[in-house]
Amino acid sequence: MNVAVPRLEAKHLLRRYGGRVVVNDVSLHVNPGQVTCLLGPSGCGKSTTLRMIAGVEMQDSGEIYVDGSLICDTVFRVPPERRNIGLMFQDFALFPHLKVGENVAFGLSGDKAVMARRVSELLERVGLADYGNAYPHELSGGEQQRVALARALAPRPSIMLMDEPFSGLDNRLRDGIRDETLEILREQDTAVLLVTHEPEEAMRMADNIALMRDGRIVQEGAPYNIYNAPADRDAVAFFSDINVIRGKVEGSLVQTPFGQFLAPGVHEGNEVEIVIRPQHVKIDFDRSGRGPDPTIEYGTPARGVVKRARFMGSESLVEFRMDHDGSIFRVTVPNVFLPAEGKVMWLMIRRNKCFLFPIKRTNAA
Ligand SMILES: Nc1ncnc2c1ncn2[C@@H]1O[C@H](COP(=O)(O)OP(=O)(O)OP(=O)(O)O)[C@@H](O)[C@H]1O
Ligand SMILES: [Mg+2]
Questions:
Q1: Average pLDDT, the chain
Q2: Is the minimum distance from the CB of 197 to ligand 1 under 6 angstroms?
Q3: In testing the pocket of ligand 1, which one of 37, 38, 48 has its CB within 8 Å of the most ligand atoms?
Q4: Cα–Cα dist 185/172, whole Å
């Protein structure tokens, strides 16, 4: 059987700066026509990873392959300009002395008429058909960014590396450009490695997300899996606000003010954290000091008092102070409901939406 070779593959990349490891054993792959997203907080090593793949920075160890062929390890190195990799970086720069059309044509060669057609086709697709003869300084920041995008796409790179390429655009423009860019890249069967620190952007664009933290990839998978089967508490927290309940496993169960939770596979006596997103907490009214009856789906209700309620547009965010320990619980509810501060209510947790993680001990003691 012919096993498909990834268009781009990085194996065990490692990079140190002044003795500190900032990219630590990163392996990833991207298939043709697919988008892999490197997602993680500021400083976790995303741009450094991308720069090594682009060839503008050398890894301390690890290898990079394109279509199964080695293009870079610590001794052998194909120079950046011969990698057929398109780049769209955070700090993109257009050539100020070249017109917009000339900027887009920069990486092209060959027949003049063919080049001109390609340039006008791309300018049209990024919504700048009439700007070919303008100079970069005559364009807004967002327009310049779209020119940079057209320039990167022009030579039909087989791999496109994008580092927060849409960060300078306002929301509505951004959605349009983002979708359009993806469409062009998919049409050309380009393999895209996209860096972002925004979970929404990653979910919207990626076929595959590699979640990065402190230089390492902590989880990799389709957006649906990363969101619904997160590897740890921080992976949940990266995508949304979280609520956390702590407890100890006794007889395979954890007793909490919200009822008991199953703790499969966790050792007896271990502490666990039960993590729940604000949209999976249900709230109900107080009936003369009593809450709703327990259910299998939602367990037992626990009582809290509204500390703050904020209208957020499509939904409201309500913060409760819980009676049992004074902790804060965040709940999102449909926007029609905005309870008054001080109101007593009952909270219930959607069992099949919460995540249970053993608490990691930071040292072996
Ligand atoms: N040339 C350099 N010299 C020294 N340290 C560097 C250098 N480049 C990056 N670093 C450090 O390496 C770490 C990773 O940086 P990197 O730019 O890869 O992060 P990032 O994930 O892209 O962050 P952001 O989302 O803020 O762009 C950071 O702590 C940064 O300060
Ligand atoms: Mg960066």
A1: 91
A2: yes
A3: 48
A4: 20
